[in-house]
Amino acid sequence: MPHPSIQPQKQMTGMFGHPVAENPIDRMFDAVYQHYGLNWQFWKCDIASVDDLPAAIHGAKALGFAGFCITVPYKIAAIASLDAVDEDVRVIGAANYVTFEGGRRIGHNNDGKGVVKAIEKVTPIAGKRVAMLGAGGAGRAMAVEIARAGAGQLTVITRREAQGREVAELVHRATGVPTEWLAWEGAITLPAGTEILLNATHLGSAPELEPVPLDWTSISSAMTVVDVITNPRITPFLKTAQENGCAVVDGVEMLVQLAMQIFEDWTGIHPDEAVFQAAVTAALAE
User: Fold this and answer.
1) pLDDT tens-digit map of 124-168
2) 20 to 30 A Cα–Cα from 107, which one of 69, 164, 194, 243?
3) Is 128 noted as a catalytic residue in this protein?
4) What is the pTM assigned to this prediction?
5) 3-state secondary structure the chain
6) Catalytic pick from 75, 113, 117, 128?
């Protein structure tokens, strides 16, 4: 029998990306683990180079991780080091978290599902004309899931033509929703009639707080403006949108929505959303 003073080994979870310092996800998950009486811990792991990513993923298995998240810029590159992926990853071509099943690393993607849940707390997506800035790993997932949620039309706006066209074609092929690519040149002028605008880039994140180059005269006050960035919660992009009378959806709300599913997949516990909301609010106040 183990000595009564010896605590069971902590179950490790984490996130692999670069950079990761400003993300509140570790403090949020640790607070939720504590709430449910779990001897679990969440580690943010800054993987400086894609060359080191396979070793990190293999190391997670060797170290006995229960699962881990994958964030920018590795959501696509990580797939090559996984044992299997689910149907969402096969369609989207990017993974944002991993579960361990029988020792096998299984890739999943619920980035888009979290975004859809967050947006639909504010406005319905069905039938709406949507524009998205950026088309990286998170953007790919968001575009597919927003189309699956019934968007009437989607415009993907990127600086890199090949990337933007690839994602536009992927969305149309997977969902049938009309999707076009638009070149990002200078200050972006949105297509007429845009009803939902999403920033799926890093622009506006702490500490740089870079502005999104956007022609705000093309923004209607009836538009819903969405940002994936979690720190700060209200980015310069969202602040300007609010000043223009727009409803906004912040990246922290998306984080909560997708984190609840990840938590359930890792622990088997169906969490109370209020627990996650309180945990992330406390984390951001630190």
Assistant:
1) 999 999 999 999 988 999 999 999 999 999 999 999 999 999 999
2) 164
3) no
4) 0.90
5) CCCCCCCCCCEEEEEEECCCCCCCHHHHHHHHHHHCCCCEEEEEEECCCHHHHHHHHHHHHHCCCCEEEECCCCCCHHHHHCCEECHHHHHHCCCCEEEEECCEEEEECCHHHHHHHHHHCCCCCCCCEEEEECCCHHHHHHHHHHHHCCCCEEEEEECCHHHHHHHHHHHHHHHCCCEEEEECCCCECCCCCCCEEEECCCCCCCCCCCCCCECHHHCCCCCEEEECCCCCCCCHHHHHHHHCCCEEECHHHHHHHHHHHHHHHHHCCCCCHHHHHHHHHHHHHC
6) 75
